[in-house]
Amino acid sequence: MGWSGDQVLGNVLRNVWVIQRSVTATLGTIIVLWASVVAAVSAENRGESVTPSERHLDQWIAGINDHWSTQLRSHTSGSIRAFPIPLGAMKKTAGIWRLESSEAITGSRRRLTWQVEGEPVLELFNALAETIGESAALQWQCDGRACGNAAEWANKVYQERLLYGRDEFMAYRAFRLDDGVWLTLFSAARTADRQYLHVDIVKPLPAGG
After folding, report:
1. CATH code of the domain containing 139
2. Among 198, 139, 147, 192, which residue's Cα sits nearest to residue 170?
3. Number of domains comprising the chain
4. Is the pLDDT of residue 154 over 80?
5. How many Cβ atoms from other residues are within 10 Å of residue 48's Cβ?
6. Picking from 25-29, 115-119, 151-155, 178-182, which range would have the lowest pLDDT averaged per residue?
7. What is the mean pLDDT of the chain?
8. How many other CB atoms are there within 10 angstroms of residue 26's CB atom?
9. How far is Cα 62 from Cα 152, in angstroms, rounded to an integer?
10. Which phi and psi angles does 56 have, rounded to 5°?
11. Domain-located, residue 131
12. What is the pLDDT of residues 17-34, one digit of tens each?
């Protein structure tokens, strides 16, 4: 039985979508890797060291970017002053939403957000957290409503509208590597087609810096 014109057109469009997504993922990987190279060269020019753990983190980030379900939506880097690493839930105290505990870091930060399609973001989040946990020390974690109010995480911690989601789909992990670099993971989802994975990599200034 032959295919109808609509079936042929539908298959062609699906193939085009797959190709476009593959090209987008490849370009995203190139952008991330190029940014890593530029950061490394800049650090060397400033006389700063690029640690083995940072190179390892770059490989993890590229791995996320290459995953079939992810599409890089945002990637920024820059200096930070007294940036709070969340180490406690978001709670409302005296009418004000705030983290129960955090550690303020001054230094530099890379911030990346991916959209996740075709699989639950929490599955990707948990697999990534397990892998990172083999090489970094878990400092604090929470899942779902135990994290507090999801909207306030998006607003106060990340200042990112993409990360507004439902409390039950939220998850967070804070890891610290041997050289003091922090990596935090955050998942957010509103619907099946609005799922996001977010990573912060925070490098404190050297003591006395």
Report:
1. 3.30.2030
2. 147
3. 1
4. yes
5. 15
6. 25-29
7. 81
8. 12
9. 29
10. -65, -40
11. yes
12. 444 454 444 444 443 444
Give the distance, in angstroms, between the CA of residue 103 and the centroid of all CA atoms in the same chain. Answer: 19
Q: Which domain holds residue 60?
A: 51-204
Q: Does 172 reside within a domain? A: yes
Residues in the chain: 209
Q: Does the residue 148 lie in any domain? A: yes
Contact present, 174 and 140 (Cβ < 8 Å):
yes
Q: Where are the alpha helices (DSSP H) in the chain?
A: 5-45, 52-66, 121-133, 150-152
Task: Using a pLDDT cut of 90, give the percent of the chain over it.
Answer: 63
Residue in the structure block whose two tokens are 């950061």:
39
Q: How far apart are CA 68 and CA 25, in angstroms?
A: 8
Looking at the domain assignment, is residue 9 inside a domain? no
Q: Which amino acid is at 182?
A: W
